[in-house]
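Minutes, methods subgroup
Present: GH (chair), OT, SY

1. OT presented the first of two proteins processed in the latest run. Sequence and C-alpha cells recorded below as shown on screen.
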Amino acid sequence: MPQKDPCQKQACAIQKCLQANKYMESMCEEVIRNMRRCCDVHRGNSTCCSGFKDSKPTENKNET
C-alpha cells in the first residue's frame, strides 16, 4: 500500500481555505505557513511540496 504524503493534509487545507475565501491568499496565511513548516521537514518525502516555493516570506510583517 502506498504511503500517504506527509504534507497532504496541509495542502488540502490550503485549497479549502482558498476556496472558502475567494482565493485571497492573505486570508490563508496561517495555513500557508503550516504547509511551509511541513515542507521544511518533509521536502524530500512529499510530492505536495514539489511545487511549493523555497522562498519564505517574513514571518511577522509588523515588526519594526
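2. SY then presented the second protein from the same run.
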Amino acid sequence: MCKHILNAQVAIRSPCCRKWFDCAECHQEAADHPLLQSFDMTFACKKCKKCFRKDTREFEDSDEYCPHCDNHFVLEAKTPKASLRVESEDVRRDARMLKDDRIQAEPQRSIFDVKDAPDRLG
C-alpha cells in the first residue's frame, strides 16, 4: 500500500534491484541506491494480479489499460493532504455546541445555591 499515491493501480518492478514498489518514492525510502531509469517497465496490475511489460518509448492511449483486465492504470495521482477534522459524530446532525471535556469549568457560585445558602444568608 503506497502512502504517496493513494489510487495506485499497478506496482512497478524496479530494474535495479528487481523488487516491487508502488511508486518511485517508495523505492527511494526502502532502497539504499537510486532508481535505475529504464524504458522497458514491468507492471503488476492490482486488480487482476497479473504482470505485463510496457515499452515507454512507444506509449499510446491503449497502453493506459491493463492488457488482461482493461483496468485503467494511468490516472491522475491522488496524494494525501493534511486535514483537520473532528473525530466524533456528525456535527451537522447534532447542532449542539462542541465542548472540550479536558478543561473543566469552575462551578458557579450563587446566593441561590442550596449548598452555600446557610453561609451567605447568615
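Chair's summary of item 2: The mean pLDDT is 76.
Next meeting: continue with the remaining queue.
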